[in-house]
Amino acid sequence: MSDDAPVGAARKWAITFSVMMVTVMQVLDTSITNVALPHMQGSFAASIDEMAWVITSYLAANAVIIPASGWLTAVFGRRRFYLICTITFTTASFLSGIAPNLEFLVLMRILQGLGGGPVIPMAQAIMWEIFPLKERGTAMAVWGFGIMLAPILGPTLGGWIADNWSWRWIFYINLPIGVLAFFMVSAFLFDAPFHRKPRRVDIAGILLMFVGFGCLQLVLDLGERRDWFDSALILGLAVLAVCMLAGFVIREIMAEEPILDLDVFRDRNFGVASIAIFMIGLAFNSSLLLVALYTQKILGYDAWTSGLTLAPGGIGTMLALMISGRLVSRMDQRLMLAFGCLLQAVALGMMTSVTAGMGFWNLAWPRFVQGFSMGFIFVPLQALALATIRTERLANATAAYNVVRNIGGSVGVALATTILARRSQQHQSVLTSHIHAWNPAVAERLQDWTDHFVAQGADTFTAGRRALAMIYRETLVQAQVLSYADEFWLLLVTSVG
Predict the structure, then answer these.
(1) What is the DSSP letter of 8?
(2) For residue 150, which phi and psi values (nearest 5 degrees)?
(3) How many CB atoms lie within 10 A of CB 200?
(4) From CA 148, how far away is CA 139, in angstroms rounded?
(5) Is 50 exceeded by the pLDDT of residue 5?
(6) Is residue 378 within 8 Å of 402, Cβ to Cβ?
(7) Cβ-based neighbour number of residue 197 at 10 Å
(8) In a 10 Å sphere around its CB, with 0-12 CB exposed, 13-18 middle and 19+ buried, how is residue 371 labelled?
(9) Could you give the CA distance from residue 213 to residue 208 in angstroms, rounded to a whole number?
(10) What is the C-alpha to C-alpha distance for residues 437 and 375, in angstroms, rounded to an integer?
(11) Which of 164, 232, 282, 292 has the maximum number of C-beta atoms within 10 A of its C-beta?
(12) What Rg, from alpha-carbon coordinates, does the chain have?
């Protein structure tokens, strides 16, 4: 649809809020489930590894369906496919809530992931098409507000629901949103006139895509827990992922009607923006994970308070989007992007000063700055990525863009957890080598703890044993603190680069 297409202002914004509701529901569900896992574990009497499949199954389903979203839009038509996704996601949410066992819940999470995966790239393509150039920045900022706020509110909302109601309600809350979104999409969304239905179904391409992206997501999600390539399962999945994805790329290059048209990466703006969104997704997702882990494991916050630590990032994003949405069509988008990256580097630099006794605002304030930076990154970056893409190729381009963003985020989380574990072990080894009776600082600290336990009524021998245990515990905590600082320094270098 051209920029002067006769779509009224009221209908444009009605479509915006319709697709935004579904998108927010999908993004919220990605993060809200994490904090409820301990409650689910108790309900199903399952192990931690078994419960991890509740998250892994959803992410894997997302990963395999997103590359095909542009092709599926052409097959079913935009309006019908968006309704199919809404119904699938909402129904799977209800079935997840009533799940009688873990196996059923995992199956429904797969269905949720398949229904929710295409909505973000579809929504981006829809809004880029229906709004003229001068209004796109404002529209994407309004839509982006929900996208960026959802993962911030997810842990807070999920923690409160799981603690005060039941973990099942984290799925039930999708039902009224899904029903309302279904009727709004039905009423306002229309099919694009330029979509041409594919003449044939590329079965080989579909199989290569599903197996390749699915195995890649499983490798990234399970790698750290299975000790990476020391595990035969991870090694096998990695080999299969490489072979299938290589076959998928070759197939898509040669196919007349590819599922994911890779020619879009030949566009210079889109190619450079894809590299940028990969790196930004890597840094953003890993830093979110690190802050959440740090507040709960080092500072001892509960899920609710940990979520509150992340919440200022959402406020910062909201404020930045109000500004960037107005500026994106009025100034050089590269300057906006540079400003956003600089702010993110400042935020990560502030996070490198982590300590075991830091206060709430010592992390909440950097999160606000980082959230503010995201508003000046995502809007201009998407504008630059799609600036020279033809309208009829938008659905394919947004699918490819989100594939890269998802992979970046998954790689970031995998690297964060792996480096955290490795650096913690290294710091622990170095620190423990300095703990001996001839170290004056250690001797003084040991005596302080001994006196503390004697004052509580313990005999000298018992007090000494407890003091040694406390020294060891402090060493472990300090090793972890240093490993978190290392991670934030690495992310800072990545952002600056």
Answers:
(1) -
(2) -60, -50
(3) 8
(4) 14
(5) no
(6) no
(7) 9
(8) buried
(9) 8
(10) 53
(11) 282
(12) 24
Q: Which of 58, 50, 489, 35 lies closest to 286 in space, CA to CA?
A: 489
Write down the pTM of the prediction.
0.78
In single-letter form, the type of residue at position 24 comes to V
- Cα(97)–Cα(162) distance, integer angstroms: 12
> How far does the chain reach from its first CA to its final CA, in angstroms?
38
Per-residue pLDDT tens digits for 277-335? 888 888 887 888 788 778 877 888 776 777 778 778 878 888 888 888 778 777 888 89
Tokens of 267: 């566009």
Alpha-helical (H) ranges within 165-267 are 169-172, 174-188, 203-222, 232-254
Among 157-171, 350-364, 441-455, 478-492, the minimum mean pLDDT is found in 441-455
CA–CA separation, 12 and 382 (whole Å)? 19
User: In the prediction, which pLDDT does 397 show?
Assistant: 86
Helices (H), 98-166: 102-116, 119-130, 133-164
CB 351 within 8 A of CB 298: no
In three-state secondary structure terms, 160 is helix
DSSP notation for 287-310: HHHHHHHIIIIIS---HHHHHHHH
Tokens standing for 75? Answer: 């097959």
Q: Which two tokens stand for residue 165?
A: 């109601």
Tell me how far apart the alpha carbons of residues 4 and 111 are, in angstroms, rounded to a whole number: 38
Residue recorded with tokens 């021998």: 461
